[in-house]
Amino acid sequence: MKAIIQFLVLFALWLLLTWSLQTADVVAGIVVSLLTVALMGNIFIEKAGRLLNPKRVFWAIIYVPYLLWFILIANMDVAYRVLNPTMPIRPGIIKFKTGLKTDMGKTFLANSITLTPGTLTIDIIGDDFYVHWINIKHDNDPKAQAEEVAGKFERILRRIFE
Questions:
Q1: Cβ(153)–Cβ(96) under 8 Å?
Q2: Where are the beta strands (DSSP E) in 20-109?
Q3: Is the pLDDT of residue 30 over 90?
Q4: Cα(129)–Cα(110) distance, rounded to whole angstroms?
Q5: What stretches of the chain adopt beta strand conformation (E)?
Q6: pLDDT, tens digit, for every residue of 83-110?
Q7: Which of 20, 21, 14, 50 lies closest to 35 in space, CA to CA?
Q8: Which of 9, 36, 142, 144 meets the CB 3.0–4.6 Å disulfide criterion with 138?
Q9: 140 or 28: which leads in pLDDT
């Protein structure tokens, strides 16, 4: 069952990325999806069927425009910093603990942080995230830093992956 779900997810992703139902594209998608499941099926998430839960799918659909919105906001912030050299930039590395327990949830959180301009996930050790931030705020409040960098993503990702 796990392999079938993995194949279906990969094949659906292939179809979305190619946006074509021509025979050659469909056959190539089937071959690539089968090879991926055969060669790397053991590194996929353990309970893939849980991801097809309608509540999780709903939150995943909500998450995409939510993430895109924060990427847009961060792009404008970084562009403003580039165009206005008098704006203060206080780069540094912050450490915070995540409440996400699954590896897939942590991976999505790390990628969401990194996709947002001005932040870069450097390392994940257990539940601790190390993030380089272009303008550190809340010097003496690690919880406020974690909320600003990751909290907005973590709330929805918890509904998808936990």
A1: no
A2: 92-97
A3: yes
A4: 8
A5: 92-97, 119-125, 128-133
A6: 987 877 889 899 999 999 888 889 999 9
A7: 14
A8: 144
A9: 28
Sheet holding 128-133, edge to edge: 92-97, 128-133, 119-125
Residue type, 52: L
pTM for the whole structure: 0.73
Quickly tell me which residue has 């601790």 as its tokens.
Answer: 128
- How far is Cα 7 from Cα 1, in angstroms, rounded to an integer? 10
Could you say which DSSP state residue 48 is in? G
* Of 88, 100, 104, nearest in space to 129 by CA: 100
Structure tokens at 135: 């303008």
Identity at 55, one-letter amino acid code? K
Amino acid at 153: F
The two three-digit tokens of residue 31, written as one number: 């071959």
Specify the amino acid at residue 39. L
Structure tokens at 147: 């909320």
Q: How far apart are CA 106 and CA 126, in angstroms?
A: 10
